[in-house]
């Protein structure tokens, strides 16, 4: 047992560093794979864009508790509503069902709710597979986003 303690004391930093590099590499490679769906965004047709928003999907028990906090990039083009995030957190956002490309014609309803400390925008939409989802967004300009999205409902 003494030998294990000496070994751990001597090599703990290198073990920790190796695990950190493995985790970092995993998140980057998975993030690149997940973000391939956003490669062809035409940035000349952006109507609205906001970084550092928060949100979560209300569909399953697991995703009600999980979401993204201050890492969501919301983009509205003339044809799509896009939720994406940066490379490092893309895998986590994908696992929490927060990466979407929604044609504006698939948006069914938006609802603005003013809270005590912040406001929330509920966006109900139909996925490509026909499922209905609701995303709750917390951003700086929820009313502006709602007015843009209401034009397409």
Structure summary:
The protein is α+β, with helices and mostly antiparallel strands. Helix content is 35%, strand content 36%. The chain has one domain: PH-domain like, CATH 2.30.29.
Give the key terms.
153 residues, alpha+beta, PH-domain like, seven-stranded antiparallel beta sheet, 4 helices
Number of strands: 7
Overall structural class, as computed from helix and strand content, comes to alpha+beta
For the terminal residues, how far apart are their CA atoms? 68 Å
Number of domains: 1
Low-pLDDT segments: none
Helix proportion range? 25-40%
Strand order of the largest sheet: 4-3-2-1-7-6-5
Instruction: Give the CATH H-level superfamily.
Output: Pleckstrin-homology domain (PH domain)/Phosphotyrosine-binding domain (PTB)
* Total helical segments: 4
Computed over alpha carbons, the radius of gyration is 20 Å
Average residue-wise pLDDT:
87
3D architecture notes:
This protein has 153 residues and is α+β, with helices and mostly antiparallel strands. The protein has one domain: Pleckstrin-homology domain (PH domain)/Phosphotyrosine-binding domain (PTB) (PH-domain like, Roll), CATH 2.30.29. Helix content is 35%, strand content 36%. The chain has a seven-stranded antiparallel sheet with strand order 4-3-2-1-7-6-5. It is elongated. The mean pLDDT is 87.
């Amino acid at each position: 047992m003494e030998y294990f303690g000496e070994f751990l004391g001597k090599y703990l930093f290198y073990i920790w560093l190796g695990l950190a590099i493995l985790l970092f590499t995993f998140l980057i490679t998975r993030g690149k794979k997940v973000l391939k769906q956003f490669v062809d965004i035409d940035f000349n047709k952006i109507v609205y864009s906001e970084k550092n928003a928060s949100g979560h999907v209300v569909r399953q028990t697991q995703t009600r508790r999980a979401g993204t906090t201050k890492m969501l990039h919301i983009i509205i083009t003339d044809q799509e509503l896009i939720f994406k995030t940066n490379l490092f957190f893309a895998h986590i956002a994908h696992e929490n069902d927060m990466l979407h490309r929604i044609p504006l014609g698939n948006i069914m309803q938006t609802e603005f709710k003013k809270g005590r400390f912040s406001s929330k925008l509920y966006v109900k939409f139909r996925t490509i597979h026909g499922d209905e989802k609701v995303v709750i967004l917390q951003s700086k300009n929820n009313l502006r986003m709602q007015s843009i999205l209401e034009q397409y409902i």
